[in-house]
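Objective 1b: paired records.
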Amino acid sequence: MVGQDLPESLTLEYKEKYSYSLVKSVAAMANTYGGLILVGVTDQPGPGRLVGVPEAAVVQVVNACHERLEPPWQPEIIPVPMSADGPGLHILVVRVDPARAPRPLLIDGTAPIRLPGRNATADRARLALLFSESPLPPRGAGRRLPAPDLPTTSEGAPAADFIIRTGLLIPVDEAATWRPLSERAVEALASSLGSSPLQPALLRWCTDMAIGGFNPFRRSGYNRARHARLAWRPAVGIESLYPVEAIASAQLPSSYGVAASALQFTLDVIIRANPYLTAISPTETVLRTAPYRLPVDRLYTTLDALLATLTDKTVIAALAGMAGIDPVIMPLPANLSTTSTTGSSAGTRRT
């Protein structure tokens, strides 16, 4: 980022050293779209802009945030050593996540907000909007995606071996809350998922079950102006019973212009190896007595691929475009959930 000489923006600010104004920038970003503050970096591009600060500057930032912010709040601060054998100087990466801040954050009785390259004070309407936001979960609880439900048959029996879900809760730019998801944005997301680390992991599941060919991520099922659903499937299936399936879902709030809105992106991987093999060979007793064993190493590979996909640059860029934000403020994956059969025909287990 520093090497690219990016200018200061709505979500990026440079500070040569700790200063009184840094806390105001923390509050402004928290009250807007979040962002990064790099301490120990001058705002002048070119060589020599990395000047560094002592590691003790972390204590200054933390103390100032607790003393000046109302309510007291501390952003994530990551000290990065400039060199292993240098004079002990660091670049402080101050990461402001608006989803974790108790908005509005006040300083000296006012609520700062972030404008491109500078801070300003929220007017009456913006302040009312901040106060009208839904309260955050208790401290430490974080924001989580809902756990997935295991697919079932018409009789209520499990119709899959397991399902894995992870995803992102992405802050949405105010302008994006008033527009639907565009065809171009959805196609960009489908293309990025098709070139992500997830696709090779899905193909390995198909190889295990001697299945060749696949249909890439494309629109499937429920798709509306503010909701897009994409599915990846192998080229074989019986009445929508696919042995391996990945479902990506991007959903904006159902109401236009909702305050404190977030784009919810979920990515599910569903494995139906045993139900599928039983369906195509119902008379083979071997499938009843010795079902397909799900390889543990393949499960680990799939988990790694899911997390790598959520940090893939092209996927991040596509989702940031949907939300109308700078990719630099994209959050980390919200959580990861699994739901599987417990071995009985009706039981399930969640983790």
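Objective 1b, second protein:
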Amino acid sequence: MWYAEKNKIMLHDTTIISLGGSLIVPHEINREFLINFKKLISKNLRHNRRFFIITGGGMTARNYQKAAESVGSLTRDDLDWLGIHSTRLNAHLIRTVFRREAHKRIITNPKEHKEPFNEKIMVAAGWRPGFSTDYIAVCLARKYGVKTIVNMSNIDYAFDRDPRVHSDAKIIKNISWREFRKIVGNKWDPGLNLPFDPVASRLAEKLKLKVIILNGNNLRNLDKCLKGNGFKGTVVED
């Protein structure tokens, strides 16, 4: 739960959604996805659900990074900032899509004071170099007392090893944080292709959070997940 400080409203059924940028901008802005995502979230809002939505950068970030690299020599921070501002552009897009339901300000620093709000949706984006949006999601869970994060990516399940390299990789449906962290390791790097950031995983374990990893392209499955009914995905919890 979290409290809207102005009127002391307690919000119970709250979920954090980490919305992969590849879902918003796979190549161009995916209008069909946005339309259907809005319908699904709006339906859940009518059932007294509350959401934090944290956006990734997607193809927007990669296009800017590639263009910049082709012109001149860049530092790692340069590339990170391009990615961060891409997440913020996507966040403004999502906030605009939900303009009637969302708080007017986007969270860009999860360590600032609690933002007082009464709306049903709060949108967040990237913070600074060295921190993934997975980490932002976990920080917000800690700050506002939310216990569940749904990580919407482009995979149905997490695997015990990279399935692109290992043909015998096995899907994971349920796993403890201890075992999951053995798979993802301890160090985060923007170039890593992992289902959940290792640094974020370490903090999530400490906070005893539940993280659900699923394919965000399957919105019917997301609906099942939000209802807790036989969804397809990986659940990480202790």
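The helical segments are 21-24, 31-45, 58-71, 76-97, 133-144, 177-184, 198-207, 219-227. The first helix runs from residue 21 to 24.
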